[in-house]
Amino acid sequence: MSEANSKGMETRRAVLGDAHVDRAEAAKTDFDAPFQTMITDAAWGNVWSGDHWTKRERSMVTLALLAALGHYEEFEMHVRATARTGATMEDIREALMHVGIYAGVPHANHAFKIAKKVLAEMKDS
Questions:
Q1: Total structural domains in the chain?
Q2: Which of 49, 59, 80, 111 could make an SS bond with 85 (beta carbons 3.0 to 4.6 A apart)?
Q3: Does the global pTM surpass 0.90?
């Protein structure tokens, strides 16, 4: 395991949680294993493990980008991750306000709908 992969797996688990990562690792096949390694090395081992921004700041930027691009399944996963990154409900709201202005109200509106559902589920659990 490379240093980037080791650090990436540590960061990935810290942000997404062991249960999520364990499920993803169990679902990995020979077909997508190289892709999963690339994501762990590049996204988690380099970008998310950088020391310039906090995990909270990275979380807010990630949420805004996923919502703006309409990647709502990943958006939902990263809303759940805010429990581990320190991003608050207010942080999520502000990120989505930016999405509404810079990427369009329909994207922000749908992301708000998802965030409200996920935040309510998180509160109830």
A1: 2
A2: 59
A3: yes
